[in-house]
Amino acid sequence: MASSEAAVKREAVGSDSATRAADLCSLLEDYLEPRQVQQVYRAYQFGAAAHDGQRRLSGEPYITHPLAVARTLGEMGLDAESLCAAILHDVIEDTPTAKAEIAEAFGAEVAQLVDGVSKLTQINFRSKAEAQAENFRKMVMAMSQDIRVILIKLADRLHNMRTIFVMPPSKRARIARETLEIYAPIAQRLGINSVRVELEDLGFAALYPMRYRVLKERVRQQRGSRRELLDSVRDELCDSLAEGGIEARVIARQKHLWSIYQKMRNKQAGFDDIFDVYGFRVVVADVDTCYRVLGHCHGLYKPLPGRIKDYIAIPKVNGYQSLHTTLLGPRRIQLEVQIRTAEMDRVAEAGIAAHWLYKDAGGPTSVAQSRAREWVHGLMEMQENAGNSIEFIENVKIDLLPDEVYVFTPGGDIMELPKGATVVDFAYAVHSEIGDACIAANIDNRLAPLRTPLETGQTVEIITAPIARPNPAWLDFVVTAKARAAIRHSLKRLQGVEAVDLGRRLVEQALNAMGLTLASLDGDKVGEALESLGVKGLDAVFEEVGLGRRMPWLVARYLAGAEEQPDESRHATASGALTIRGNEGAVVTFARCCRPIPGDPIVGFASAGRGVVIHHQTCNNIREYRNHPEKWVDVQWDAVAEGDYPVAIDLEVMNRRGVLASVAAVISDLDSNIDAVEIEEKEGMIATMKLVLGVRGRVHLARIMRRLRGLSAVLRITRRRG
């Protein structure tokens, strides 16, 4: 009896799945050829057999999920290969089926798409975050070959979010956060607005269920109270357009809940302070009519200054085109109106998917398609420069920031950058080599520093220098993932070159103390020493010495073929000190605790990962190194040290108007720059200025201090260490 009941249930399940498959095929018959529809149905039969007996947490047979994913793509109008891959997207990952079997049954193209969406299941990762990052990295690699991979993944995530509420709360929150941070922004970046909106609202409901319910109820209440007013505005707008002889479709629209919540959070405002919850979309025949409609809207209601945006002339980075204006409607309610053509409306909702059928039809490449390719190319560049998969996924999150600024190159080309982007971000957007060599910029023909944030409409010209190189401080203010990844990559490369040079000098110094030189060493003994040290080549061991990972005197003894086993606690005193030129880069750092400058008596210490750290000989912090003499490095300043060095000085001054300007003028006249300033009131009319200046050495500093003492407002001046 029990077995017959189970058989009946299996038959019912199979019937339900077959019905869904038949419904999908009916949808596809509107735009696919019969043989292609048949191919999709065969994929359903193959997937149903592979997933036979598997169920989702909801209790439904597993095949219902791939069918739902395929239906979403069918509604977008994607091709047969994408639909087959959607139905089979979990077969490799969750069943014994191999990629080769899919290729044999449906072709290499479908198999490649399925493999691109499948997770890495054969590798053990140290953490869930690392697994997530590596799987995302794999997907991006596949996406670079075929953009349909991400479209399948978005449809997959959409159905998972629609059914997420059967999952445990902790897993639900993790998946919802990932959706809001990565997948919804990707949908926006590809212009697939319909998917993006639903992903955001589903993620909001799963991550913050109480906030979602409260906000949904407030919107429902407000919609009821304002329905009559909104209908009145819509009628007035339609009448105005009809009188002007303009045929248009006017649609009342409501901001989705996640958008309202984000606006409330970003502006620290309550729901009643968010006025543009409602708006209208006007769809017309052509671009010329869009601008005519804009004029009618402004004649009907007063536009708000600064709230008119022309995304037709300058499309968004994802290819989105529309005119936006915010109007002050009846009862001083703010109403946002979007004006676009029917084609623009289609692209705004479906993005790159709206143009997928152009792929094989020889049609023109759409703005959305070309922008998507540029974005994927940028992802690949970031992937190559990222140190690991977790760093890569963090860079992608930064890159998916939705707000943009639009600036011009000197040649008139438009560059899209995230809001808050700086000159350095612009330079790296032009080319990585331009970014590496930039030193300043002309913004609208005015000289500007590298950290200057850019604004829409500015013309930016980058100034470069052949000897310039990236500065680690740039990482504190750049906002684009491309700039951040490129700076880190260049710094690592430069650090390697600089470390090799410094390490060679340190080893040569240690060999000189033993009465030897690199040229005099026995080649066979050097080879044995390198093998014993476990490194490939002299440059590799020099780099480790330069980075402070190996002691130079110890390496020198190995290379010289010393017979006894060296003792790390012993330290050979070198006869010649390492000369500090100031151009060693990141492998020589100057301690912030004492801020040594050329001319100061200095000592050096080898520090793992930082190379040689230079301290003033009187620095209190060098006491901790007394028990580690093997880390001491004999150093001295080069006769002509390069660059500016930070130094801290304290000035006691009369607290009166203009004193800071007088001090700054003296410092500027003597070719120095104030890097930081802090003013503290001491006693009534007396204040203390704490300055950090850039100087070339002790002589330069002495000249500055002498001139400052000559100011009548300056009572006392001292150099501060720390």
Structural commentary:
49% of the residues lie in helices and 16% in strands. Strands 1, 2, 3, 4, 5 and 6 form a six-stranded mixed sheet that branches. A four-stranded mixed sheet has the order 13-15-14-16, covered by helices on one side. Strands 19-20-18-21 form a four-stranded antiparallel sheet, covered by helices on one side. Helix 2 (34-50) runs parallel beside helix 4 and helix 21 (481-513) packs across helix 23 (538-546). It is globular and about 90 Å long. The relative contact order is 0.05. By secondary structure, it is α+β, with helices and mostly antiparallel strands.
Number of helices: 26
Name the poorly predicted regions. 1-13, 120-125, 357-365, 563-575
Average pLDDT, all residues: 80
Rg to the nearest angstrom?
33 Å
Helix content: 40-55%
Total beta strands: 21
Largest sheet: 6 strands, mixed
Distance between the termini: 86 Å
Q: Which structural class do the helices and strands define? A: alpha+beta
Q: How would the global form be characterised? A: globular
Strand content: 15-25%
